[in-house]
Amino acid sequence: MPRVLLGLMAALAVAAGPALEDEIAQWRRARASTLQAEGGWLTVAGLFWLHEGANSFGKDPASEIVLPDGPAQAGVFDLRAGTVAVTMKAEGARRELQPDSSDVVKAGRLSLFLIKRGDRLGIRLKDPENPARKEFHGLDYFPASEAYRVTARWVASPRQIPVLNVLGQTEPSQCPGYAEFRIGETDLRLYPILEEPDAQELFYIFRDQTSGRETYPAGRFLYSGLPKEGRVVLDFNKAVNPPCAFTPYATCPLPPPENRLPVRIEAGEKKYH
User: What is this structure's pTM?
Assistant: First the structure.
């Protein structure tokens, strides 16, 4: 290859470095802001599974769900045949709650949300004064690298794959296909799922040979855009820890066997200490 062309290619490669670093630095700042935000994962301070019937909640230690703020007897969550309604003591009004929605119950500074996992219904507590939020000390990353931003071949192959979560529950998840790519000399595949039927991005739950060493033991998360012209871009510089790395009250999915990679992905977030 002519030296002039080699020199041009080298110059282009050098020019790409700062651009990537700037992009990833901006993305990292946004990532930290999202974690620290009002209602972000660092505010998650409790998870209470409901039993059939009335579940009282409030600051009173005699409550079934004891809260760190708000009225002594704030109200009652009533679970009947798979439906949950809340009655606030101060108001007396009763309303039904939708799981995994923006429906919020306020108690002092606290926000309470209904979640559903399998056949279990629970209340997730968010506290803006949660120590995990106040003591957040930033995230640690591998250096940004062009080698871990890969353009993968997309193979459309819709199916359902079982995804296990940390509760021990297995849920069938819609997988639209898989991405084929190479890291070093190894050919690899990743199978994403759709978080919603009309999702506008692909969600990958993966584990690699850094897991349990430099990175979170259970694995990491990665998002990509939808495939275009049979290709999908996987930027492992944007691989992140699951919420379970920041709070014991998350219900994270775990990597399916297909997504346990036999290589080291030295990109993205490291363990959160």
Answer: 0.90
Write phi, then psi, for 94 (nearest 5 degrees). -115, 135
pLDDT digits (tens, 9 = 90+) for 119-172: 999 999 999 999 999 999 999 999 999 999 999 999 999 999 999 999 999 999
* Number of residues written out for the chain: 273
Question: What letter does residue 9 receive in the DSSP assignment?
Answer: H
Q: Which residues make up the CATH 2.60.200 domain(s) of the chain?
A: 41-134
The CB density around residue 224, as the number of other CB atoms within 10 Å, is 19
Q: How many Å separate Cα 126 from the centre of its chain?
A: 16
DSSP state, residue 228: B
- Whether the CB-CB separation of 122 and 48 falls below 8 Å is answered with yes
Helical segments of the chain, H only:
3-36, 131-134
229 contacts: CB under 8 Å, gap ≥ 6: none
User: Per-residue pLDDT tens for 34-43?
Assistant: 999 999 999 9
Mean pLDDT taken over the chain: 93
**CA 84 → CA 54, 89, 129, distances in Å?**
10, 16, 27
Phi, psi of 13 (to 5 degrees): -65, -45
Which are the contacts of 45, defined by CB distance < 8 A and separation ≥ 6?
A: 68, 125, 126, 127, 130, 132, 247, 249
- Highest CATH level, class, for 41-134: mainly beta
Q: What is the CA radius of gyration of the chain?
A: 22
What are the structure tokens assigned to 135, written together?
A: 């003591």
pLDDT of residue 91: 87
Amino acid making up residue 267? A
Whether the CB-CB separation of 267 and 239 falls below 8 Å is answered with yes
Cβ neighbours of residue 80 under 8 Å, at least 6 residues apart? 52, 53
Three-state DSSP at 252 gives: coil
